[in-house]
Amino acid sequence: MVKILIFAHRGEAQAFFTQWDLTPVSFYFSGLFKNRDYFVLITGEGPKEASEKTVAVLSSFKDEISSVVNIGIAGSLSPKLKVGDLAWIRSSYAQNAERCEFKSYTTKYHTSIDCITAYSRVTTLEEKKTLSHFADLVDRELWSIASAAHLFKMDFLSLKLVSDESDSADFCQLVKDEAPLLSKKLFDEFIRFESSQKTAAPVVLHAPKSNSAEDFILAHPKLYFTTSQTRKLTTLLRGLLMKKIFTEEEIKKFTDSIILESSPDITSKELSKILLNTLSEKLNPLNTKIKEKINEAILPLTDSGAMVGFDPELEQEYIQLNYQIRNTKDQKRLILALEQFNYQKIRNIFSGKLED
Description:
The protein is α/β, with parallel strands linked by helices. It has 13 helices and 13 strands. It has 3 domains: about 1-200, Rossmann fold; about 215-285, no CATH class; about 290-350, no CATH class. The chain is about 45% helix and about 20% strand. The chain is elongated and about 80 Å long.
């Protein structure tokens, strides 16, 4: 079983062709090559080309291919990523028209860089600003390739080289001017990774060094974040920085204060949850007020001993009850609580009527 390396452009793969003896594979379209250890596929630019060609090759050679690696350039959406930086990708998202695709794909390797695939070329700073809410990098192919790998239940991995900075509108200029150099950097990093696997050494995927608040929080020894919590943290921090509620340094100091004020017995997971909730309150103070009003409205139910839940994202209007009835007294207590509970208050809250 071998890996397939997928590139959008031949220029990105130039060093791989120079260093390896790759033979064209007779297939339905040109751009597929092979040697003893790897397939190499050149898809052309864009999610449609990448999707169609990747699916076609994986379906035809699924008994030979073990995993998928997308290699190429990407534009920076974050000030921490500079031209020439190498980054292994954590999660892949997709932008379609004015929205982000619901599905995302995450590698099993731990890094801190996400990439969003754009369905059209990103040519303005305003477009970059919009996409920066979702990811650190933007490309044209990764999400389609990751989707195909997921379809065939194959692992995927992605290595990107930054082609331009977040305040530049000259997307992909590095490819035109520096193709041999960038391809050699991609080749050297991929070989380093492959060598680490063959020697059974710990897999260390490079990410640009930074003093960002996100890296500070994720690396903090007293905090532990699940994958979903990490995504939520990324979204919260971007929002706080975009709205200029906090600077990077203020977020670090705020995090330290939360940790110092916490009980010494609290677990890392619990502390991380408290931090996320507190940051969310800072970013969305209105949501905090809404939740307070909901908690006031459901008091008759909670006072009766019922466990009452509602949508934490405040997107769906519902109340969920969990109540144990062990005798007729419990039954009467619940009936009385339901009579005292006014659901119209919940409807008013979700309609924006927060005043009594």
